[in-house]
Amino acid sequence: MLILDILSPLLLLPLLLLGYGCRAADIPEDTTSEFSVRLYHQLQVAGGQDNIIFSPLSVAVALGMVELGARGASLAEIRQTLGFNHLLPGVEFSLLQNLTAAVSNDDAHCVIRFANSLFLQEGIAFNPEFLHLMRKYFRAQVETVDFSQSAAVAEQINSWVENQTESKIRELLSAEDFSSVTRLTLVNAIYFRGSWKNQFRPENTRTFSFSKDDGSEVQTLMMYQQGDFYYGEFSDGSQEAGGVYQVLEMPYEGEDMSMMIVLPRQEVPLASLEPIIKAPLLEEWANNVKRQKVEVYLPRFKVEQKIDLKSSLQGLGIKNIFTSDADLSAMTDGKDLYIEKAVQKAYLEVTEEGAEGAVGSGMIALTRTLVLYPQVMADHPFFFIIRNRRTASILFMGRVMTPEVIEPNDHDFDSI
Ligand SMILES: *[C@@H]1O[C@H](CO)[C@@H](O)[C@H](O)[C@H]1NC(C)=O
Ligand SMILES: *[C@@H]1O[C@H](CO)[C@@H](O)[C@H](O)[C@H]1NC(C)=O
C-alpha cells in the first residue's frame, strides 16, 4: 500500500504594531537578547540601505507558540536558537507568559497589548492538550475556519489583525496565502502606544536636512528639546575619533519603557557601527547611561516593515519546522504538518507627544549660542531599541536610514 504524505502548510504570522511609550509590573528577566541581536544582523545583511523595524519579543512569543506543538529536532532547534537551553524543559512557556504579563499595560499613558490567535481548519482534530496549553500560556483565541475558502479566511484574519492593532496593520494576508492544504495559521500581534515622559513641543519642530549614508540629503521635520535623559558616550574600541558614539535613553511615561537611540558620529556610516552590536553591549549601554541634561534633535519618523521571518529564522538555525521533516506532532497526531510561512509586520511612529490627550511638560526655550549640555543630533542614520527597563525585554529594534521626508514646500520654515 502506498501512503502519500499530504503537505499541510502552516502559516505563522507574528504581527506587530507599535505606536508609543509605557510601564509594567513585576518581573522575570528576559533571556532572549542574544537571539534579538542575531535576528537584527540577519535583517541588516538583507536590508541594504532600508529602515528596519521588528519586534524581537513578538517573534519569541510566536516561536514559543510553535514550540508548544513541536517535538524532536523541531523542538530542539527552537530552544537552542531562542537561548532556552539553560532552562528545564517547558519552563520557557511560563517565562514567556510572565514576560508578556509583566510588559502588558493599558492606561491613559501607555498601551502594550499582546494578542495571539490560532485559526484552525474545520474538521481537523488538534490535540486537546495543545489547545489547552495554548490558551494557558499564550491566552490564544482559537477559531475554526475553512481554508479552502481562502478569500473569506484572509478577510477574517485581516479584520482580526486590524482590530488588534487599531487599524495600523491592514491587509496583512491575501487569498493566495492559503490553500486547501493549509491547516493552521498562527497570528501574534503586539500593539504599543505611549507618551514620552518629556514630550517635545511641536512649536520647536523645524525643517532640517538629514544626511543619508549614501551621501544624499533629505528634508525632514526635526523635533527639539533640552531635558533630563539617560546619556552616555561609548567607544567601539578603536583609537579613531570616529570610534566614539552616543547612546541616549528616553523614557516613556511611567519610566518602565524607553527608547534607546544609538548614534555614530556624523561622518561615520551606521553600517560601521552595526557589526559591534551584541547582546552584552546592550546591557553595557543600559547600565552605563547616566541621568543628565541633554539637548536632543530627533527627526519625526514612521517605520513600517513586513518581514519574511522564514529565511531569517532559517539563517539562525531554525530550519526543521519549515521542512517536510518537521515534527509538530504535539499539535495533531498526524506527522504531516509543517510551517509554510512566517511573516511579521511592524509599524512604529515617533512624534512629539505620542498618545492623544497626553500632558505636555514645560521645556526650556532654544538657546543656540551656548552649548551647555551634550548634544544628540540625530540628523544622520541611527539604531534604536524600545525596551522594558525592568525585564530587559526588547519590544522593538530597528534603524532609521531615512526619516519622514517632507517636500521643501510642505512646511514653510518661517511660519512654524
Ligand atoms: C512565572 O510566575 C509564576 C507566578 O508568579 C511563578 O510561579 C513561576 O515560577 C514564574 N515562571 C518563571 C519561569 O519565572
Ligand atoms: C475588537 O477588539 C475588541 C477589544 O480588543 C473586542 O472587544 C472586539 O470584540 C473586537 N472586534 C472584532 C470584530 O473582532
In short:
The protein is 24% helix and 32% strand. By secondary structure, the chain is α+β, with helices and mostly antiparallel strands.
In words, what does this structure look like?
This protein has 416 residues and is α+β, with helices and mostly antiparallel strands. The chain has 2 domains: 234 residues, Antithrombin, subunit I, domain 2 (Antithrombin, Chain I, domain 2), CATH 3.30.497.10; 154 residues, Alpha-1-antitrypsin, domain 1, CATH 2.30.39.10. The protein is 24% helix and 32% strand. The chain binds 2-acetamido-2-deoxy-beta-D-glucopyranose (2 copies). One 2-acetamido-2-deoxy-beta-D-glucopyranose binds next to α6.
Q: How confident overall, as mean pLDDT?
A: 84
CATH-defined topology of the largest domain = Antithrombin, Chain I, domain 2
The helix/strand series, from N terminus to C terminus, equals EHEHHHEEHEHEEEEEHHEEHEEEE
Unreliable runs, pLDDT <50, ≥5 residues? Answer: 1-6, 19-25, 354-369, 412-416
CATH architectural label of the largest domain = 2-Layer Sandwich
Radius of gyration: 22 Å
Multimerization status: single chain
Subcellular location: Secreted
InterPro entries: Serpin_CS (IPR023795), Serpin_dom (IPR023796), Serpin_fam (IPR000215), Serpin_sf (IPR036186), Serpin_sf_1 (IPR042178), Serpin_sf_2 (IPR042185)
Signal peptide: 1-24
Domain Serpin: 37-403
